Amino acid sequence: MTPAVIQLAAEAAERQSAEVTSVGARIAWVIGLVVFIVFVYWLMRQGWKWRGALQNDLPELPAAPDGLPEHRLALTGRYHGSTTAGQWLDRIVAHGLGLRSRVELTLTDAGLDVVRPGAGDFFVPAAQLRGARLDKGIAGKVLTEGGLLVVTWAHGDKLIDSGFRSDRAAEHAAWVEGISTLTTQNSSITTEGAER
Description:
The protein contains three helices and ten strands, in the order H-H-E-E-E-E-E-E-E-E-E-E-H. The protein is α+β, with helices and mostly antiparallel strands. The protein starts with a helix and ends with a helix. The strands form two sheets. Strands 1, 2, 3, 4, 5, 6, 9 and 10 form an eight-stranded antiparallel β-sheet that branches. The model has no long low-confidence stretch (mean pLDDT 84). It is elongated, with a radius of gyration of 29 Å.
Protein backbone atom coordinates (compact mmCIF):
# COMPACT_ATOMS: atom_id res chain seq x y z
CA MET A 1 0.00 0.00 0.00
CA THR A 2 1.10 3.45 -0.70
CA PRO A 3 1.62 5.92 2.11
CA ALA A 4 -1.29 8.07 0.85
CA VAL A 5 -3.72 5.14 1.05
CA ILE A 6 -2.47 4.22 4.54
CA GLN A 7 -2.91 7.81 5.67
CA LEU A 8 -6.49 7.96 4.27
CA ALA A 9 -7.33 4.67 5.97
CA ALA A 10 -6.00 5.97 9.28
CA GLU A 11 -7.99 9.19 8.98
CA ALA A 12 -11.14 7.24 8.14
CA ALA A 13 -10.65 5.00 11.17
CA GLU A 14 -10.23 8.02 13.44
CA ARG A 15 -13.43 9.70 12.22
CA GLN A 16 -16.61 8.66 13.89
CA SER A 17 -20.01 9.21 12.42
CA ALA A 18 -22.13 11.87 14.02
CA GLU A 19 -24.99 10.70 16.19
CA VAL A 20 -27.99 10.27 13.87
CA THR A 21 -30.75 10.88 16.38
CA SER A 22 -31.00 12.35 19.78
CA VAL A 23 -33.49 10.29 21.76
CA GLY A 24 -34.23 13.14 24.16
CA ALA A 25 -34.96 15.61 21.34
CA ARG A 26 -37.20 13.10 19.57
CA ILE A 27 -39.22 12.41 22.73
CA ALA A 28 -39.61 16.16 23.32
CA TRP A 29 -40.93 16.62 19.77
CA VAL A 30 -43.40 13.75 20.14
CA ILE A 31 -44.68 15.09 23.47
CA GLY A 32 -44.97 18.59 21.99
CA LEU A 33 -46.93 17.26 19.00
CA VAL A 34 -49.32 15.27 21.22
CA VAL A 35 -49.94 18.32 23.43
CA PHE A 36 -50.62 20.44 20.33
CA ILE A 37 -53.13 17.90 18.94
CA VAL A 38 -54.93 17.64 22.28
CA PHE A 39 -55.09 21.45 22.47
CA VAL A 40 -56.59 21.70 18.96
CA TYR A 41 -59.26 19.10 19.81
CA TRP A 42 -60.04 20.94 23.05
CA LEU A 43 -60.49 24.19 21.09
CA MET A 44 -62.82 22.42 18.64
CA ARG A 45 -64.90 21.05 21.54
CA GLN A 46 -65.10 24.49 23.14
CA GLY A 47 -66.24 25.96 19.80
CA TRP A 48 -68.97 23.32 19.53
CA LYS A 49 -70.17 24.09 23.09
CA TRP A 50 -70.05 27.84 22.40
CA ARG A 51 -72.15 27.41 19.24
CA GLY A 52 -74.68 25.36 21.23
CA ALA A 53 -74.84 28.09 23.90
CA LEU A 54 -75.53 30.70 21.22
CA GLN A 55 -78.43 28.59 19.95
CA ASN A 56 -80.04 27.95 23.35
CA ASP A 57 -83.07 30.03 22.33
CA LEU A 58 -84.15 27.17 20.04
CA PRO A 59 -87.11 25.34 21.66
CA GLU A 60 -86.98 21.64 22.50
CA LEU A 61 -87.62 19.35 19.54
CA PRO A 62 -91.13 17.84 19.47
CA ALA A 63 -91.58 14.09 19.84
CA ALA A 64 -93.77 12.04 17.51
CA PRO A 65 -97.37 11.78 18.69
CA ASP A 66 -98.90 8.38 19.38
CA GLY A 67 -100.95 6.79 16.62
CA LEU A 68 -99.41 8.36 13.53
CA PRO A 69 -101.48 7.87 10.36
CA GLU A 70 -100.32 5.49 7.65
CA HIS A 71 -97.09 6.62 6.06
CA ARG A 72 -96.82 8.14 2.61
CA LEU A 73 -93.07 7.55 2.27
CA ALA A 74 -90.34 5.85 4.30
CA LEU A 75 -86.59 5.65 3.91
CA THR A 76 -83.46 4.60 5.76
CA GLY A 77 -80.17 6.38 5.32
CA ARG A 78 -77.98 9.03 6.99
CA TYR A 79 -78.79 12.25 8.77
CA HIS A 80 -76.00 14.75 8.00
CA GLY A 81 -77.05 17.69 10.15
CA SER A 82 -79.11 20.85 10.21
CA THR A 83 -78.33 24.46 9.33
CA THR A 84 -80.09 27.79 9.29
CA ALA A 85 -82.25 27.76 6.14
CA GLY A 86 -80.43 29.14 3.13
CA GLN A 87 -77.05 29.21 4.91
CA TRP A 88 -75.55 25.79 4.28
CA LEU A 89 -72.50 26.43 6.50
CA ASP A 90 -74.33 27.78 9.58
CA ARG A 91 -74.63 24.49 11.47
CA ILE A 92 -77.19 24.11 14.25
CA VAL A 93 -75.87 22.02 17.15
CA ALA A 94 -78.50 22.71 19.83
CA HIS A 95 -80.63 19.75 20.98
CA GLY A 96 -78.42 17.27 19.11
CA LEU A 97 -79.26 18.59 15.63
CA GLY A 98 -75.53 18.74 14.84
CA LEU A 99 -74.91 15.03 15.45
CA ARG A 100 -74.64 12.83 12.38
CA SER A 101 -76.34 9.47 12.60
CA ARG A 102 -78.27 6.77 10.83
CA VAL A 103 -81.88 7.76 10.21
CA GLU A 104 -85.28 6.29 9.53
CA LEU A 105 -87.59 8.90 7.96
CA THR A 106 -91.33 8.49 7.73
CA LEU A 107 -93.62 11.00 6.03
CA THR A 108 -97.27 10.88 7.10
CA ASP A 109 -100.21 13.26 6.79
CA ALA A 110 -99.34 14.40 10.34
CA GLY A 111 -95.74 15.32 9.47
CA LEU A 112 -92.18 14.03 9.24
CA ASP A 113 -90.98 11.51 11.83
CA VAL A 114 -87.18 11.44 12.20
CA VAL A 115 -85.88 8.42 14.12
CA ARG A 116 -82.13 8.56 14.78
CA PRO A 117 -80.61 5.55 16.56
CA GLY A 118 -77.88 6.80 18.87
CA ALA A 119 -79.12 10.41 18.72
CA GLY A 120 -82.32 12.23 19.65
CA ASP A 121 -85.45 11.55 17.59
CA PHE A 122 -87.73 14.40 16.60
CA PHE A 123 -90.95 15.08 14.76
CA VAL A 124 -91.77 17.90 12.34
CA PRO A 125 -95.54 18.56 12.23
CA ALA A 126 -96.95 18.95 8.72
CA ALA A 127 -97.87 22.59 9.42
CA GLN A 128 -94.18 23.36 10.06
CA LEU A 129 -92.84 21.77 6.86
CA ARG A 130 -91.87 24.43 4.32
CA GLY A 131 -90.53 22.31 1.45
CA ALA A 132 -87.80 20.01 0.22
CA ARG A 133 -85.15 20.11 -2.47
CA LEU A 134 -82.19 18.18 -3.83
CA ASP A 135 -78.84 19.75 -3.07
CA LYS A 136 -75.17 18.85 -3.04
CA GLY A 137 -74.08 19.90 0.42
CA ILE A 138 -74.78 20.91 3.99
CA ALA A 139 -72.32 21.93 6.72
CA GLY A 140 -69.51 19.40 6.78
CA LYS A 141 -70.82 17.19 3.97
CA VAL A 142 -70.58 17.71 0.22
CA LEU A 143 -71.91 15.15 -2.24
CA THR A 144 -72.58 15.00 -5.95
CA GLU A 145 -75.23 17.32 -7.38
CA GLY A 146 -78.64 16.18 -6.13
CA GLY A 147 -77.12 13.65 -3.72
CA LEU A 148 -78.66 15.18 -0.63
CA LEU A 149 -82.31 15.57 0.35
CA VAL A 150 -82.72 18.89 2.19
CA VAL A 151 -85.97 19.41 4.10
CA THR A 152 -86.83 22.96 5.18
CA TRP A 153 -88.99 23.34 8.28
CA ALA A 154 -89.92 25.93 10.88
CA HIS A 155 -89.05 25.52 14.54
CA GLY A 156 -89.80 28.34 16.92
CA ASP A 157 -88.99 31.52 15.01
CA LYS A 158 -86.25 29.87 12.93
CA LEU A 159 -86.29 28.18 9.52
CA ILE A 160 -84.09 25.08 9.46
CA ASP A 161 -82.63 23.00 6.63
CA SER A 162 -81.97 19.35 7.55
CA GLY A 163 -79.88 17.15 5.26
CA PHE A 164 -80.61 13.47 4.65
CA ARG A 165 -79.16 10.90 2.27
CA SER A 166 -81.13 7.76 1.53
CA ASP A 167 -79.44 4.40 1.15
CA ARG A 168 -81.11 4.45 -2.28
CA ALA A 169 -80.57 7.96 -3.68
CA ALA A 170 -83.16 7.37 -6.41
CA GLU A 171 -85.83 7.84 -3.70
CA HIS A 172 -84.93 11.51 -3.19
CA ALA A 173 -87.09 12.83 -6.04
CA ALA A 174 -90.20 11.10 -4.62
CA TRP A 175 -89.48 12.70 -1.24
CA VAL A 176 -89.21 16.18 -2.73
CA GLU A 177 -92.55 15.66 -4.48
CA GLY A 178 -94.21 14.12 -1.40
CA ILE A 179 -93.16 16.91 0.96
CA SER A 180 -94.09 19.58 -1.60
CA THR A 181 -97.54 18.02 -2.00
CA LEU A 182 -98.04 17.88 1.78
CA THR A 183 -96.97 21.52 2.27
CA THR A 184 -99.25 22.64 -0.58
CA GLN A 185 -102.20 20.79 0.98
CA ASN A 186 -101.50 22.31 4.39
CA SER A 187 -101.15 25.84 3.03
CA SER A 188 -104.47 25.53 1.14
CA ILE A 189 -106.20 24.24 4.30
CA THR A 190 -104.72 27.13 6.29
CA THR A 191 -105.82 29.63 3.65
CA GLU A 192 -109.37 28.23 3.58
CA GLY A 193 -109.54 28.35 7.39
CA ALA A 194 -108.37 31.99 7.42
CA GLU A 195 -111.02 33.00 4.85
CA ARG A 196 -113.87 31.61 6.99
